[in-house]
Each structure stands twice: as C-alpha cells, then as structure tokens.
C-alpha cells in the first residue's frame, strides 16, 4: 500500500517517464525472479530426495508460467488493470513464500530474526507497490480496485506466516516459491510486451530512459534485499 501511494505522482511523469517506470517494474521483477528461484532451489535441496528438489522447482515454475500466460492471453494481451492484477498476483505468490519464512522463524523461537525479516520485507515491498500501479497511469481505477490489488499482493504473506508457524516443510516452501517464480516471469513478459507496444511505428522501445529504469529497478531491489539477507 505504501508503494501504491505513489500513483498520483506517476500520473504526471509523461510518456518517457512512464516508460521509465515500466522499465523500473521489469527491473524489480527481474531481480525478484532470480531471488525467488534461488530460494526455491535452496528449499528444494532441503526436501526429501523423493521430491527431486531442483527438477521439481524448475518444472513447477515452467508450468506456472505457461498456465498463467495462457490464462492471461485468453482475452487478448492484458493491459491496464488486468496487467496490474497479474503483477500483484506474481508478487503475492512470492510474498507467500516470504511469509512461510517469517512464520518458521517465530516457530523456531528466533523472534529477533522474524522481526528483522518483517522489517526487511517491508522495505523491499514498497518498491513492488510502485510497480503494481505503473500500468494504471492511463486509467482511473476505483478505490476498491486499489484495495483489491493491495490485498492480492500483500495478504498471501499473512497466510504464509500462519501456515509457516503451524506446519512448515521445505518442499511446500519450494513449491510455493516455484509457482511465484513462474508467475513473476509471466509478468515480466507481459510488461515487456506492453512497454514495446507503447513505442510508435519505427520507434525504438529500448531507449536511455528504459535502460535507466531497468538498471535502477535491479539496483533498488539489490540494495533493499541486503536488509533481508544480512
């Protein structure tokens, strides 16, 4: 919600500014995809051998990507609120995995680690909120739509904490994160396509502003992730 409050400021950034924000979103999600896959593989390796950790993670991520891509394209290319919804869904699935880690930390009696993770993920997720509202700059969504996006992206973390505190298993965490990674990859493809379509005939879509946004998005996520990884 904190990140989504930047929406009014985004409406006045202009065409190049919006391209910058969309590229920023891709950068945020690119880092999130790599980070999610790494965490999924780590949990997969901690699972019982029968789950075949790494193949399980890769196959589930691919299946999630293909399924969501097919669903997202059933009514054409998603834009506006539909695209924002897919971004929120991908982030929400990732946050579910983060919630499992927080719940497991408290269950293990490491309350200090749990609090530290909460603060780190909060800082991390503010930038994700900006990415969610970026496709809505040309629209005027209703307040319920904003609240729905916020719940879709944030509420899975709460559910993850509950599940992680009651019943935690590495293979479930690996599966949740793999699904989240596939969802994030699908969003990267859709946002990238949307950014490319915004360029007029004969115009280059990969401009200095998009390059700057992509680089800054990755840099922001890398820096804020330090507060989670330390």
Structural class label: mainly alpha
**Count of beta strands:** 0
Q: Pick out the low-confidence regions.
A: none
Hey, roughly how much beta strand do the residues contain?
under 5%
**Alpha-carbon distance between the two ends:** 25 Å
Query: What would the principal axes of the Cα set say about the shape?
Result: globular
Largest sheet: none
Q: Using only CA atoms, what is the Rg?
A: 18 Å
Order of helices and strands: HHHHHHHH
Report the average pLDDT across residues.
79
Helix content: over 70%
Structure annotation, total helices: 8
Structure description:
With 230 residues, the chain is mostly helical. It contains 8 helices and no strands. The chain is globular and about 55 Å long. The relative contact order is 0.24. The mean pLDDT is 79.
Which characteristics define this entry?
230 residues, mainly alpha, 8 helices, 80% helix
Offer a concise description of the structure.
80% of the residues lie in helices and 0% in strands.
Question: What's the SSE blueprint?
Answer:
Elements: H1 7-10, H2 14-46, H3 53-72, H4 80-107, H5 111-133, H6 143-166, H7 170-198, H8 208-229
